[in-house]
Design brief:
The chain has 271 residues and is an alpha/beta fold. 29% of the residues lie in helices and 25% in strands. A hairpin with a 2-residue loop joins strand 8 and strand 9. Helix 4 runs parallel beside helix 6 and helix 6 runs parallel beside helix 7. The two termini are 25 Å apart.
Length: 271
């Protein structure tokens, strides 16, 4: 099933449109003619093994990586625009990566980390923090149920707590879509349960989610579309129920598995 770029949207302008995107690094293709159309408020998962190019795709969204533009038919648009600045991007995508969580793991309080999202910094320096910023930070901490961590330093938190704080940092600009890159690495079962509940709450509040992962059990029930990725390609794109099958997941990870569904979640077993 090939990725589709013909899905209708309001005013026929998608939130994100990539077509034939190729990215090179160290003379190697890390993304190879990738195409994706994402509608505002849509919840999708990009699933693939380590090294599939998932993180490279996210770095292309936030302009850490740039595509080759000399090829014919290349489309690279956010909200219908081919050029945008960082301020536009922050109100469109809130991106949470393991690199960002690591960068925030220093002697800063949860309050400081969330506030730093307003300035795209890691911590507060001589920034002018307004009452409105303080109010919004308090609302986010309450929404994510981490207000009790407000004055706790990141170095004193569990992995799950720190990740929720960094999600709060990404939400300060009310992004249309939250991008989560391999979000459950290092989380134990309790932290995984809490994280999934947090994602569901964010989705139900109207924020779209792009979940990038190699774990089936990360895919919350609110996600309706799954893209399989391998070798820098999107190799399948479609409704979750059609994509998450024994055959497809076995081929993706090159290991025989059985896919089981339980209470809206999918699990790989038998390997």
């Amino acid at each position: 099933m090939a990725p589709s770029d013909t899905t209708p949207t309001r005013n026929n302008i998608p939130l994100l449109e990539f077509k034939n995107i190729t990215v090179m690094k160290d003379k190697m293709k890390i993304l190879d003619s990738v195409s994706l159309r994402l509608e505002e408020g849509e919840n999708i998962a990009i699933l693939g093994p380590n090294g599939a190019g998932k993180s490279s795709f996210i770095k292309t969204i936030n302009r850490e990586y740039y595509p080759l533009l000399q090829e014919e038919g290349v489309v690279f648009r956010v909200r219908g625009r081919e050029t945008w600045d960082v301020f536009d991007l922050r109100s469109t995508f809130g991106i949470v990566s393991n690199d960002l969580v690591y960068a925030c793991s220093r002697e800063m309080t949860a309050r400081e980390v969330v506030l730093s999202g307003f300035f795209s910094s890691i911590g507060l320096f001589r920034h002018h923090v307004t009452r409105e910023m303080e109010r919004k930070t308090g609302e986010i901490l309450d929404f994510l149920e981490i207000a009790h961590l407000k004055e706790r330093e990141m170095t004193e938190m569990s992995s799950g707590e720190a990740r929720r704080v960094v999600i709060g940092r990404a939400l300060v600009h009310d992004p249309k879509t939250l991008v989560l890159d391999e979000p459950t690495n290092s989380l134990d079962l309790h932290a995984l349960h809490t994280f999934r509940a947090t994602c569901r709450k964010i989705s139900r509040a109207g924020t779209g989610i792009i979940l990038v992962t190699h774990n089936l059990h990360d895919i919350i029930p609110e996600i309706t579309r799954v893209i399989l990725m391998k070798g820098g390609h999107f190799c399948m794109d479609g409704p979750k129920e059609d994509v998450l099958t024994d055959e497809n997941i076995s081929n993706l990870f090159v290991v025989p598995v059985r896919v089981r569904k339980d209470d809206g979640y999918y699990y790989a077993t038998g390997y």
